[in-house]
Amino acid sequence: MNFAGSTAKGVYKLRTGIPGFDEICLGGLPAGRTTLVSGTAGAGKSVFSAHFLAAGIVEYGEAGVYVTFEETPELVRQNLEGFGWGVAGWETDGSWQFIDASPDVINPAVVVGQFDFGALVARIERAVRLTGATRVVLDSIGTVFEHFDDDRSVRTELYRVASALRQLGVTALITIERPEEYGALSRHAVSQFVSDNVVILRNALDEERRRRTIEVLKFRGADHRKGEYPFSLLEGTGAVVLPLSSLLLEQGSASRRVPSGNHELDAMCGGGFYQDSLVLVSGPTGAGKTLLGCSFINGTPDDQRCLMLSFEEGREQIYRNASGWGFDFAALEAEGRFRLEGAYPELLGLEDHLINIARSIDDFKPNRVVVDSLSALERVASRKAYREFIIGLTSLLKDRRICTVFTAATSSAFGGSGDVVTHVSTITDAIILLRYVEFYGEIRRGMTVLKMRGSAHDPEIREFTIGRKGMAIGDSFQNINGILSGQVEVKELDEIERIKTLFIDVDLADEAR
Asked: ω before 411 within 30° of 0 (cis)?
């Protein structure tokens, strides 16, 4: 059996094989025990449970038994084919067996007297012994509650099922429908009596968008991560949990520098970006954020690859703009050094976007990543969902130690409030601000390195222009004050010199003493 190890109390854990779930379980489900999977309609209980069996077969060679109380085995097979699970073939080779406990709507049976699970338990025991199954799913047991007179009878029969599963030594999931996302675990208060563990699936409406989350409510005798975590149901994959817990501040820190694609910017940053740094480029629309990202791509060394994730502009538009700046992205792509992927943010939920990004990174294995832009993704989600997306994305990139440039638009064209994107600024290693500067009736552009973690950097606000060769960074603005705040004020040079004399260098003051 595929044990992940034991806890301090000797509770062994079984790896489920569901991506991300074992991480929040700190190894997997407690082996040989029953877990109640509770959720509202559409939360993903059936797919989650079926994935538990499918992963056991595919990844660990462990047979499973699926007890269906709602749909017939034929319907279950059809529903699971879309996730890439060949249930029919597994039935043929004896690694998957159905127990059909679904109602016969054409010839319904007449129940006389007290209904019980005795016959069902016998069928489960036989199927487990016949297949050698170590995993069992009962989906969804709440369907048969209508046959019982009271909650006491429900508790008694469920306890019988749980005891039988425990004696068989199988790890079992029992799904049950709850009346609401936050409240009682089921319509019958029985979960605390029959289950060692409880997992809650939610499909809550979050600012006009459905958002699935998963929570391990309890593990009897074993630890787990607390709180809700986003998860998704993907065609060809099944259930995927985004643990958001890999950001444990345990990543290594690189001292090697990589070029930004612009020599002047490298000098401003103290020699370029660190090879595992996350760089935020923030500025108003049209200020040059995408250009800076494209310069970063164009500066990719010959032995490295760069992945661009575009959420605002299409391929043809990006290639055209890059060509106008002297960058040949088509040639980079032909050499296998560049890949462009993009989609409108509204097409998917942020959880699905994050999963797709992770797949692209694992497939292409880039040394550099450009995300253009985070602002486009922010507009399609609630603050909580967006914050979790940012944590998951930065965690992924930090774990892979990939140098990444994020672009994000500010809410104001000339600075002030909203300069730095919420949830991102504290996580990123470097922040580059781009600004428009009004100067005697003319609009100019300015740039400053606001933050460069672990490195000295140029504190000046430098003027830059955009031309045929991309971005040209020039000298600093000497006689303009208030650029970042948006309250621009032009000072005469003699006034600036006078102001400088008001601040005495600390080292000179010490020498004078």
From this structure: no
Where residue 125 sits, what CATH number does that domain have?
3.40.50.300
How far, in Å, CA of 338 to CA of 307, rounded?
6
- Write out pLDDT tens, residues 1-25: 677 666 656 689 999 999 999 999 9
In tens, the pLDDT along 76-89 reads: 999 999 899 999 99
Same domain, 185 and 262: no
Q: Which residues pair with 240 in a beta bridge?
A: 232
Instruction: Read off the tokens for 79.
Output: 């529903």
- Is the same domain home to 323 and 366? yes
What is the average pLDDT score of the chain?
Answer: 85
Whether residues 226 and 316 share a domain: the answer is no
Q: Are 264 and 230 members of one domain?
A: no
What is the rounded end-to-end Cα distance, in angstroms, of the chain?
Answer: 76
pLDDT band at 416 (very low <50, low <70, confident <90, very high): low
Question: Is the CB of residue 449 less than 8 Å from the CB of residue 261?
Answer: no
Catalytic residues: 70, 312
Q: Which of 21-30, 129-138, 158-167, 349-358 is predicted least confidently?
A: 158-167
- The answer to whether 64 and 96 are in contact (CB under 8 A) is yes
Task: Say which residues have a Cβ less than 8 Å from residue 506's Cβ, sequence separation at least 6.
Answer: none
Query: In angstroms, rounded to a whole number, what is the distance separating the alpha carbons of residues 310 and 179?
Result: 40
Domain boundary residue, one of 207, 241, 275:
241
Does 512 map to a domain? no
Q: In this predicted structure, what is the pLDDT of residue 183?
A: 74
Query: Token pair 């016998």 is at which residue?
Result: 122
Q: Are residues 377 and 412 in the same domain?
A: yes
Residue found under tokens 């009271």? 150
Long-range contacts of 213-220 (CB under 8 A, 24+ apart): 214/21, 214/24, 214/48, 214/241, 216/24, 216/25, 217/185, 219/11, 219/25, 219/30, 220/30, 220/33, 220/196
**275 and 140 belong to one structural domain:** no
Domain assignment of residue 25, yes or no: yes
Domain of residue 432 covers 257-500
